[in-house]
Amino acid sequence: MKICNVLLIVFSIGLISSVYADAVIISNDLDIHIPSAQYQPLLENEQNLWANLKFTGIDADGNLTWKLDSYGVESANPSNTTALLMIGASYESGKTRIDDNNFASLNGMAVGYGSYLALGDAYIREKSSNGLVVNEANVGNTTFYRATCFYDSCLPGGDMFGYNEQFERALQRVAMYNLEDPTMIDGYNAQFLFIGIPNDCIHSDALGVPQGEARPCDIEKVNETVDRIIEVANKASDFGIIPIVALHPEYDAIDLPLVKSALNFEWVANEYEYNLLRNEYSKRVKKEIRNVIVLELWENFEHRGDGIHPSKQTVMMAAKKLAEIVNLYLTPKKPSKACA
Q1: Element (H or E) spanning 235, and its range?
Q2: What tens digit of pLDDT does each residue of 122-154 get?
Q3: What are 1-42's pLDDT values in tens digits?
Q4: Assigned architecture for domain 83-337
Q5: Which helix (H) or strand (E) holds 65?
Q6: The pTM is what?
Q7: What are the extents of the domains in the chain?
Q8: Alpha-carbon distance 59 to 82, whole Å?
Q9: Rounded to an integer, what distance in angstroms lies between the CA atom of residue 146 and that of residue 72?
Q10: Which of 22, 35, 70, 197 keeps 20 to 30 A from 99, CA to CA?
């Protein structure tokens, strides 16, 4: 490599370091990260350094001092042919799951009757991504396998896959079998697993029981949800796949009472219940997941008018953030290993 190119790289890293002082959550043992001048102090026994992903800067008086919408990554690494695995719910996919007997929640209707752009599709469009996604998310999904339920009954089919089931299916898509022994898996053509926000605890049709029997989540139920997120994320880490976890948007950015009215739910989480979920989720995923990247992906969230789903502009910005984080963290290594 020429000396001038080396100097350019050093200068670029220095520029990123100076601008993105609060740029990204840094895992404790990843090989590549954004240099950062400021970190949140580690809590007791915390494994991962972290900070919020920011694209704007303000001074002490709250005045905008700089605004950027890109890390300067113009395109994906051409050598990266690994797929981004994606699990989640309606932020990641606008389609409901329809089973072989045509049972489905919401009668199989897509968000916005098909006019909604979800993160999985936006990521493929984003020019700085390699466009390779294995997306197992569906509308309505929770962290656990469940039925779709009305006030006093549940559908006899159209069950929704939990996050572990989604991850297992995603792994099947990218498994690389040994040519000499087809029963052996040599590895997986994926380096990252994106874990989207589940429906757990947000509304009455997220518990897998008739809505008349469902009750808002207390701290125990909230922690059961987070336990399942941590379990699937650490499972990915065991396979050598880096988990990327998105955090919930702020309560004031969404309109859950509107969602309740539009979808005829028995209840939705109030502000206290939502923030209990949001805060516990954020706190624990940062501390208890190995090699994790945690993103404030839905910062500056605007919904598309239905109270809950992100607008096209919000989704496209989220896709850009996600793609550029993947590119910046990408390590030149072989596809992920198979566990024994």
Answers
A1: helix 219-238
A2: 999 998 899 999 999 999 899 999 888 888 888
A3: 444 443 333 333 333 333 333 334 333 333 323 333 233 333
A4: 3-Layer(aba) Sandwich (3.40)
A5: strand 64-67
A6: 0.76
A7: 3-67, 83-337
A8: 40
A9: 42
A10: 197
